[in-house]
Amino acid sequence: MTELLGRRFLSRSCLPAVVMMLAAMTLVVGGCGGSNDGVPQGRNVSVSGQYGPLQIVLSAFTVYQRGQIIAATVTLTNTGAQDVFYEYGGCEEYYVPVAADDTPEGQETIYLRDPTYDGCGGGIRGQRLRPGETRKFYVQWDQTQNGELVPPGRYRLRAVFDAGLTDASGAPLLPTTENSRATTPLEITTF
Question: What domains does the chain contain, in order, with CATH numbers?
Answer without folding.
Answer: 1-33 (no CATH), 41-190 (2.60.40.2360)
